Amino acid sequence: MKKRLSLMLVTLMAFGSILAACGGGEEAASTDTTTPTETATDTTTPDETATEETGTDSESAIGFTEATDVATNNDVALARTDSAIIGTVAPQGVFNPLFHQTSYDYYVDYLVFPSLTKVKTDGTYENDLADDIKISDDNKTYTFHIRDDANYSDGTPVTASDYLFALKIYLDSSYDGQADPLSWNIVGGKEYNEGTATDISGVKVIDDKTVEVTVSDYDAMTQVNLGGVTPLSEAYYGKDYKQGDVSSIKAFNGKPMGAGPYKVTKYTAGQEVDFEANEGYYDGAPKIPKLIYKVTTDTTNLAMLQAGETDLDNITVNEDNVEELKATGFLDVDILKNNGYGYVAMNNNNPLFSDVKVRQALTYGLNRAEVVEAAYGPYAEVINIPQSDVSWAYTDENIDPYDYDVEKAKSLLDEAGWVEGADGIREKDGKKFEVNFSATADNPVVDALIPIMTENYEQLGIKLVVETLDFNAIMEKKDKGDYDMFFAAWGLTPDPDSTVYITDGAQNNSGYSNPEVDALYAKGKKELDINERKKIYAEAYQKINADAPEILMYQRTNMLAINGRLDGWDISPYKDFPLSLHQVEIAE
Amino acid sequence: MSQYIIRRLLQMIPTLIGISIIVFAISQMVPGDYITASQNPNMTAERADQLRALYGLDLPPVQQYFIWAKNMLVGNLGDSFQHKMPVTEVINTYVWNSFVIAFATLILSWVIAAFVGVFSAQFQYSFFDKVVTLLVFLLMSLPSFFIGLLAIKYFALDTKLLPTGGMTTAGLNASGFEYLKDVGLHMIMPVAVMTTLSVGGLTRYFRTGMLEVIRQDYIRTARAKGLKERTVIFKHAFRNALLPAITLLGFELPGLFGGAMILERVFNWPGIGQIYLASLNLRDYPLMLGFTMFLAVLTLLGNLISDILYGVADPRIRLK
User: Fold this and answer.
1) At what angle do helices B285-313 and B87-122 cross, to 10 degrees?
2) Which residues contact B320 (CB under 8 A, 6 or more apart)?
3) How far apart (Å, rounded) are the C-alpha atoms in residues B250 and B257?
4) How far apart are CA B118 and CA B124, in angstroms?
């Protein structure tokens, strides 16, 4: 009976996860969208970053756990002596780094299309296809030299004009990928986009392997954006391309061809992607000759790892799963900080929240630790600044942790002029403190948050009214400024530059405005020295922390489970697993 | 007859126009569009505007409707935003996977339901009938994901008799018979579960149809003239009892291509149902609208086919 009951529970829980996944997966959507430009900055790595990272790794439940007993490995997995099977959510078949949109297409493109520079584990950047990058003194001219030994998988060399070709696709008026190439300020880019020029005047092909790009204005992202461009073989992709119509390029999405460590041999939509090692890869032929991305679902991906049917997969982080994975003995478990954070937005333009004391009170008065524990157990942490603690820009100096403190919250509300009325609800100028919370359905955080928040705020004399809406409906209310509070999550890029907290920024959901923060973000974007930038962003985060424009909630984690027979990974929250796949080998 | 078909086909045109207006209007009323739904943290307002202009999302809804309708007339359903390829190609990629299991399910569930329905009508209120009725209601009320997951647990994870999901074994570069065998093995669970779910309702239809026929005078006559019971049931009664089922058969047509959203997810089957659901969530309107219209056309065609078949099968309502 007991066994049957637990089976029922497992099944029901699994159903819950299906529904959650079906129900739009707002958070998934927000974290899955990765753009080709999502990469870091400078090539220098300060030592502090490294120590900081190991500091977080040794902490609590989060981090890497090596397989304890590889000898127990499953025969099914061991039988694959020349191949590895990676479990993944279905990619959409957009295998072109200029156009792809989901992380899962990205996983494929990582292996096929190297760019001039690539991200390192700490979120900074190093050379990849380029072996030399020269930047002029005014930071406006960038000269890239492509490795002499870089060839496409069809044997033809990667040339500077292929880089120019890729830029032309980016700047084409019909380009509908996620990147914003006009913002890179390449000289002549706008003219090409508008069709008034047939060439990009700011891009000069100096010789076969050297290209020089001039920008009209620079910032810290310029090098990242230009280095993140993947040269596309003009001979392969460009046969039918005409300015103003990139559809002939997109026609190759299912048949990618690049200079990366692997080449796609077969793609079956919704089922699998097969790869073969590119023997001519400039960084040395990959050690695993054959690779398969197999589409799995969250109901069975754990069982498939246990059975040896897959060698690597993303598994939902929770205590049961972690325990089960570790119990196998032959699986490495890597729990990585997610590049993103959850927050409760408050409408700063609403008279209810325009007073900073009220916003602080609402943060102090909410037991965030309890919410996060209820939603994610030990696998998420409360955050107080809008930055990942593995980022080089992270700081905890002079940051108020806003520990749960009812008394402090009450006195702040008193100071702000909200006094308790006859019915226990606070009032100011005859108006009751009543907050409308727009909640999404089927979200684990919202489910944990609402009961705790209702109770906590009741103690403060604030009434919380909850309405359940579709996520897009909430976003529309947000755009109109017609809301009090909602819960959402942001994805983070390795670079701290963002528009979430600057006045009228494109992503500024809360209507927060602080001229000092605006100035700091502008300064941080223009500064190229990473140590200077650290100071600037630390200051900006301290100001945001004091202003409490929104209630920052948590940074959660993702979990990778990897069969212990595969060694040589170099994985971090910034460096996804495909980036080190070429150096991974099958242990004997 | 051909005149009737032509008339019916012509009547479909205003219906389709009506459907297209309603579907499009609903899509316009739903908050959010593809650009907001994809939640790109790096999307600037300028880029969002550029993309909207590129996709034509910045035009007034009425103009958008006419552009869409005009393109549809020439067979162009537009490009899917998320798949970055023509909608027709997306549908073509996934719909056949759905069709394969839907078709197998259709055949199996109809055959089983016909036999079970006939027997439980023949022996109405017998022990067999009662057990069948109980089972039928039990199966009808089971949620699909639930038996889906149970089946995976028992047949794939515990006993390892069947694959956990998907359509083919990863890395198996088989072709011909080997490939069919592999797909067949992967089909067993989804088809069995879908059959289990649909057979219940169908059995009731057949049972009711059969019960009605069995009480007719001509059945009594047939028995009275000493025909064997089997001949009475299968030759005289069954064929007449099948008549109402023709209507049902017409309704099955869109179902064959519509995909099963929940079960495709559970069994990781690369069908159109999941893709359709994702297009709703991501506000990928060309794909969502295109596929909805595709299903609408199939529904209307299904109706027409069942009307025609009715005429063929039943001389009483045959058209002159």
Assistant:
1) 40
2) none
3) 13
4) 10
3-class secondary-structure state, position A557: strand
Cβ partners under 8 Å of residue B302, min gap 6: B250, B251, B252, B253, B254
Which residues in chain B touch residue A36, judged by CB atoms under 8 angstroms apart?
Answer: none
Q: Taking CB atoms and an 8 Å limit, are B54 and A176 in contact across chains?
A: yes
- A185 and chain B: CB distance < 8 Å anywhere? no
User: Counting one residue from A and one from B, how many pairs have CB atoms under 8 Å apart?
Assistant: 170
Let me know: does A228 contact A37? Beta carbons within 8 Å.
yes
Q: Is A341 on the interface with B (CB under 8 A)?
A: no
pLDDT in tens, chain B (320 residues): 788 889 989 999 999 999 999 999 998 888 778 887 777 766 777 888 888 888 888 889 999 999 999 998 888 888 888 888 899 999 998 999 999 999 999 999 999 988 888 888 888 888 888 888 888 888 888 888 888 888 888 888 888 888 888 888 877 777 788 889 989 999 999 999 999 888 888 888 888 888 888 888 888 888 888 888 888 888 888 888 888 788 888 888 888 888 888 888 888 899 999 899 888 888 888 999 999 999 999 999 998 888 888 888 777 776 55
- Chain A residues 285-314 with CB within 8 Å of chain B: 290, 292, 294-297, 299-300, 303-304, 307, 309-310
State the Cα–Cα distance between residues A223 and A43, nearest whole angstrom.
Answer: 10
- Full DSSP string of A183-214: GG-BTTHHHHHHTS-SS-TTEEEEETTEEEEE
Give pLDDT, residue B318: 67
- The pair of structure tokens assigned to B37 is 């739904």
B261 and A506 within 8 Å at the Cβ level: the answer is: no
Helix ranges restricted to H, A416-464: 444-460
Point out which residues pair with A312 in neighbouring strands.
A86, A562
Report the pLDDT value the prediction gives residue B16, as an integer from 0 to 100: 92
| Closest CA–CA distance from residue B302 to any residue of chain A (Å) | 28
Q: Cβ neighbours of residue B141 under 8 Å, at least 6 residues apart?
A: none
pLDDT of residue A371: 92
Report the SS3 class of residue B148.
Answer: helix
Q: How far B100 CA sits from the closest chain A CA (Å)?
A: 15
User: To probe the interface with B, which of A98, A100, A472, A483 has the most B CB atoms within 10 Å?
Assistant: A472
Q: Domain A112-250 carries which CATH code?
A: 3.90.76.10
A8-41 pLDDT, tens digit each: 444 444 444 433 333 333 333 333 333 333 333 3
Dig out the tokens for B246 from the structure: 């023709």
- Please indicate whether, in this complex, the C-beta atoms of A299 and B152 are within 8 angstroms of each other: yes
A-chain residues within 8 Å CB-CB of B156? 300, 303
Structure tokens at B253: 């047509």
A10-13 long-range CB contacts below 8 Å, 24 or more apart? A11/B146, A11/B149, A11/B150, A11/B153
pTM of the full structure:
0.82
